[in-house]
């Protein structure tokens, strides 16, 4: 009797032969029916497994896997690209050598302590602008994001207007406003703040959008559970949702910090002596413009590599 299919799978009662008072030969149609039902169920399970495998393969591949001819074309294109890049690099080095940019007098000065100290002073001021601007912009971006997510129409409209306006205005234009327009209105800031405040105003909208995306990515049950405990909107955001969102957003915030660091290179507009300005002064004074800019680029590269490694380390430590 254990082989008899469940009642839901059994055909209508009129098709099932009686079970009492009949010979054993009359049970064969029911047995065959049960075997048919089991084979059908097995076929359905196999089809479901095949569909799941196909869906998984489609999820893993964003494009069709290249065939032998396509792989050969990719290898040829890669080889030609490497040859072209090597040729351009060799041509660039040759031009540098022809014009004396690789001579020792163009590079020996960077081993002298006064030059190193001069560059370190520029690096320190660049990092100071970056840290101060980030310390102001990042905390202010979170309330802007929460106001945009609130149900109050007027504050939400104001926050959206601020984000749309300052996200669209170029940072260089904001610097000109602080440098030329505001002093004519009687509002003058020190050189340091003429650089920091435009960077802050330009970065708050971008960081707030990162915060908003992180809050929206949280499961709705987190906020609903907080509301069920009697929390207000701001309490639920501050104590439950935002702390979880910030942990997931740390790599993105560090990446935004890299952009903020590069924004500080516009300090030459307000005559703030950050790293790029220092390399510019160095190149013009010693007539080593190219080598000075290359050294400055190497300094920016090293700082950004350090921040990128920090972002990678934070991403690895992030709970899955």
Give me the secondary-structure topology.
Elements (H helix, E strand, L loop, with lengths): L27 H33 L7 H31 L5 H4 L5 H37 L3 H16 L2 H14 L6 H26 L3 H9 L4 H31 L11 H12 L2 H29 L3
Helix pairs in contact: 4-5, 4-7, 4-9, 4-10, 5-7, 6-7, 7-9, 8-9, 9-11, 10-11
The helix/strand class is mainly alpha
- Mean pLDDT across all residues, rounded? 81
Number of strands: 0
Percent of residues in helices comes to: over 70%
Radius of gyration: 34 Å
Strand content: under 5%
**Which regions are unreliable across 5 or more consecutive residues at pLDDT < 50?**
1-25
Number of helices: 11
Q: How would the global form be characterised?
A: flat
Assembly of the depicted chains: single chain
| N to C succession of SSEs | HHHHHHHHHHH
Described by strand count, sense and barrel closure, the largest sheet is: none
Cα end-to-end separation: 49 Å
Explained architecture:
The chain is an all-alpha fold. The protein has eleven helices and no strands. The longest helix is centred in the middle third of the chain and has 37 residues, at 113-149.
Please outline what is shown here.
By secondary structure, the chain is mainly α. It contains eleven helices and no strands.
Give structural attributes.
mainly alpha; disordered N terminus; 11 helices; 320 residues
